[in-house]
Amino acid sequence: MTGTAERRLRLNLFIYPGGHHEAAWRYHGSRPDRLLDIGLYQELARRAEAATLDAVFLADGPSLPDNVRYASRFRLEPFTWLAAVAAVTSRIGLIATASTTYTEPYNLARLFASLDHLSRGRAGWNIVTTGAPQAAGNFGLDAHPVHAERYDRAREFVDVVTKLWDSWEDEALIADQASGVFADTDRIHPIDHEGRHLRVRGPLNTPRTPQGRPVYVQAGSSEDGRGFAARYAEAVFTAHQTLGSARDFYADLKRRAAALGRDPDRVLVLPGISPFIGSTEAEARALRDEFNELTQPEYSLQLLERLLGVRFDVADLDRPVPREAIDTGGERGASSRFQLIVDVIERERPTLRQLLHRLAGARGHWVVAGTPEQVADRIEEWFTGGAADGFNVMPPWLSGGFDVFADEVVPILRRRGLFRTEYTGTTLRDHYGLPRPRSTFAGRRAPLSTTAAPAP
Amino acid sequence: MTGTAERRLRLNLFIYPGGHHEAAWRYHGSRPDRLLDIGLYQELARRAEAATLDAVFLADGPSLPDNVRYASRFRLEPFTWLAAVAAVTSRIGLIATASTTYTEPYNLARLFASLDHLSRGRAGWNIVTTGAPQAAGNFGLDAHPVHAERYDRAREFVDVVTKLWDSWEDEALIADQASGVFADTDRIHPIDHEGRHLRVRGPLNTPRTPQGRPVYVQAGSSEDGRGFAARYAEAVFTAHQTLGSARDFYADLKRRAAALGRDPDRVLVLPGISPFIGSTEAEARALRDEFNELTQPEYSLQLLERLLGVRFDVADLDRPVPREAIDTGGERGASSRFQLIVDVIERERPTLRQLLHRLAGARGHWVVAGTPEQVADRIEEWFTGGAADGFNVMPPWLSGGFDVFADEVVPILRRRGLFRTEYTGTTLRDHYGLPRPRSTFAGRRAPLSTTAAPAP
Questions:
Q1: Å from A183 to nearest chain B CA?
Q2: CATH match for B10-280+364-437 among 3.30.390.50, 3.30.70.20, 3.20.20.30, 3.20.20.140
Q3: What is the pLDDT of residues B127-177, one digit of tens each?
Q4: Nearest-by-Cβ selection for A182 from B70, B77, B139
Q5: If you measure CA to CA, which chain A residue comes closest to B301?
Q6: Measured between CB atoms, which of A63, A72, A207 is closest to B74?
Q7: Rounded CA gap, A252 and A245, in Å?
Q8: d(CA A178, CA A200)
Q9: Which positions 297-336 of A are in contact with B (Cβ < 8 Å)?
């Protein structure tokens, strides 16, 4: 939390098809015909790289989101999409979301190892347990595992894939043409994991990657999520509507990490920010209002109802949301996004329409409307005020909504000495100031049993 | 099988780290330092595209192959690798191997849909059930499922992912900014699959892809494999050492497909060919011998022992392989590769060393050593002689072993009118002359239940 001379903002571009405002695809400046065109995302990533951002980031979930009738809520598969982005960039980090609940650890470990190899060390893993209950039906489960159970598997899952990524020591690859030794099998280790949720023998079928492991990112801010983040995460994505809330979270997470013996500076806290930018504040607010006018109450209401487990009536759009209607107990109450909405209702007593507009901006993330100077001011305020090590930039629409941030806000942040003017390293770990981990197997002389005894 | 004026060879470049000869990585013309460098594979794919090949193809398996001590037998993860190749090419097909035994159908369907979207219709799926028993331990299984059981799951798996790829009809994506309708949810269908091996609800979380479905490729030539190919495959990869064997297979597969009511011309049979090319036949043979000299008996013997389930003695390298030692019964006998080796032993009565060299070329595939004209002659002989619709080209080493094929053999095939001089389409289905399938759901008016009833 101390502001040393070297402390610099970390900035990711969070890419969402169409943009982060729920009506983005309807805005005249967006291109709904290009939502499945990899070229659009490659151009975005190149612009983000030209602006020396740390990373691009893709969310994900293994099911069709609700209400695709009204919003561009299909999914871009992150591994393939980011591999194609890697091919046209050379520095920017590539953070893929992947679920510990609905993937096999061996397959996931391979995908990340490959992304790290082909990008020469730019992969990050946003570790999620999947919130959408409808995913269960796509994987033969009768019900989505409950929150605590998902996190229990997630912890074991991360331990397993960590061992897989470490299973080839860095020195295992020899490739000596003269002697004919391709790999030092004494430095390739089965992991022989047998746990409550998973049994994985290993080793991985690829040499260790440039970063050793992808950067571990985590995005849940629930109690389980914080505990998980404090233990595993090197960067934490989080949603806050106020400086106070962000500050509390920041302090809490750093404290938890320190309590586990970790260096708090190596657990970066990165809230989301969705900026509407105008040449005047009034112009920025008008732009935000224009987006809100494009929302469709059928869509927004249904989303809110699912989140809160409450039914609303369209006739009540302009009445205050009854605080009492929200039942904060049970499984729903464990979700940090649920809690954020309850906080907004308690703090602002909004009408239903106001609440819907508030959430339309970026699904509960911080929406800022202002001039480039004002947006930079808010970023600096959070960054120097103990609330953030940087931000996930969530443009309301793509790609214009990012262009104006890159063209207008980034130069101000650079002038103030808050953000890099050029990359000083090549990997995502370099950008984030994180060390490259040694293999946990380094130095252990356990031979790979299956190849230890060649035929006589 | 009839040779019409339009009948043209299909040629894929089968990419294997280092090359297909087991000692390729030791050859002075190969670059073991670049085996994990995506740039090497991107350059190869661009050269293959410049030579108007149909596709590049990556093998795969979810475990570390045996004997990595002596050979470059790690794995390149196909989806990420081919996505990065897609980014630097525009026409060539991209065929990824993926296992029906060790993946979740929802995840696999997403990866292929994404590869097809981002490549604008160039994805193919080499459907395998995974032969390596050590994969089981990486996925929590006590034992690798037996051959028949794997194929039983494979059939159900293909049915499931086909339905997932069809679950968005082509017209489902509307994206009409004015009306606010993003998708026609009447044209997005849950698949509600409940089978012996799999339960998958669907729909997929992405719109239908340029090709509708990836091209279905299959590579097993066992009895189970042939039945599977006849029913599902649009292209079949196969290994034959003689024209006679290839002809028998070709006729059998076309007959089986016709018996199931399919058009045999839409089941392409593509044997592997691994060409050593020289300016004279003697030079080509000398090159092949040079590679064989680089093999390591410890490695080759162990591989053969695993395949055949027999122990050999290094002292017997120069004695004939005893035919009687090979037990052709049981699970092993079901493998077409096993049968191929038995045939070589019966036909040629090779010494153990000769057999090892024969298999070192391309793991049992057809190895040809000759001048460019001679190689083109053999290709033409098989193509016009009812043995092949084209070939999987398996260069002994990469990338030089492909360059000489592209530079010397392809022009001859073009001059003879056997191979295209330019692409006439943009998708892999175009190149292979295969139709784009309609969604099986087209016209059914089953609404997507979860979004059919928006809140009032």
A1: 5
A2: 3.20.20.30
A3: 999 989 999 999 999 999 999 999 999 999 999 999 999 999 999 999 999
A4: B70
A5: A455
A6: A207
A7: 11
A8: 35
A9: 298-299, 301-302, 305, 311-314
CB contact at 8 A, A116 and A168: no
Give the list of residues 6+ apart from residue B166 with CB closer than 8 angstroms, or none. Answer: B189, B208, B212, B213, B437, B439, B440, B441, B442
Taking only the tens place, the pLDDT of each residue in A318-370 is 999 887 777 766 666 667 778 888 888 888 899 999 999 988 988 889 999 99
Handedness of CA B415, B420, B424, B426 (dihedral sign): negative
Determine the Cα–Cα distance for residues B29 and B47; give it in Å rounded to an integer: 17
- What are the chain A neighbours of B68 within 8 Å (beta carbons)? 182-183, 185, 188, 448, 451
Q: Which residues of A touch B61 (CB under 8 A)?
A: 205
Q: Given the structure tokens 């028993």, which residue do they identify?
A: B133
SS3 B170: coil
Cross-strand bridge partners of residue B272: B392
Q: Does A74 touch chain B (CB under 8 A)?
A: yes
Question: What CA–CA distance (Å, rounded) separates B127 from B105?
Answer: 12
Of the candidates B68, B74, B118, the beta carbon closest to that of A81 is on B118
Q: Are A340 and A364 in contact (CB under 8 A)?
A: yes
Tokens representing A282?
């009034």
Residues of chain A with pLDDT > 90, as a percent, come to 80
Q: Minimal Cα–Cα distance from B71 to chain A, Å? A: 6
CB B88 within 8 A of CB B40: no
Q: How many CB atoms lie within 10 A of CB B351?
A: 15
Per-residue pLDDT at B113 exceeds 80: yes
Of A69, A188, A204, which has the smallest distance from its Cβ to B182's Cβ? A69
CB within 8 Å of B301: residues ≥ 6 apart: A455, B312, B314, B352, B356
Contacts with B423 (C-beta within 8 Å, 6 or more apart), sequence order:
B52, B91, B430, B431
Alpha-carbon distance of A359 to A353, in angstroms, equals 10
- The 10 Å Cβ neighbour count of residue B378 is 17
Distance to chain B for A135, nearest Cα, Å: 9
Cα–Cα–Cα angle for B279, B282, B287, rounded to 5 degrees: 80
- For strands A235-238 and A390-393, give the pairing: unpaired
Tokens of B96: 């990824």
Q: Whole-model pTM?
A: 0.95
Helix (H, G, I), strand (E, B) or coil at A398: coil
Span A10-292+365-452: which CATH code? 3.20.20.30
CB-CB neighbors (< 8 A) of B198 in chain A: 140
Q: Using CA of residue B407, residue B410, residue B414, residue B420, what is the dihedral sign?
A: negative
Where along chain A do its domains lie? 10-292+365-452
Contact predicate B141/B102, CB 8 Å: no
- Cα B320 to Cα B325: distance, rounded to the nearest angstrom: 11
> Closest Cα to residue A19, out of A7, A3, A4, A30?
A30
Q: Nearest by CB to A138, which of B74, B106, B185?
A: B106
Which residue's entry shows tokens 């397959």?
A: A107
End-to-end Cα distance, chain B: 61
Residue B102 and residue B338 in contact, taking contact as beta carbons nearer than 8 Å:
no
Which chain B residues touch A184 with a CB distance below 8 Å? 69
Chain A / chain B CB contacts < 8 angstroms: 254
Task: Tell whether ipTM is more than 0.85.
Answer: yes
Q: Of B82, B92, B70, B90, give the one whose Cα is nearest residue B18.
A: B70
**For residue B254, which of B240, B265, B243 has the smallest C-alpha distance?**
B265
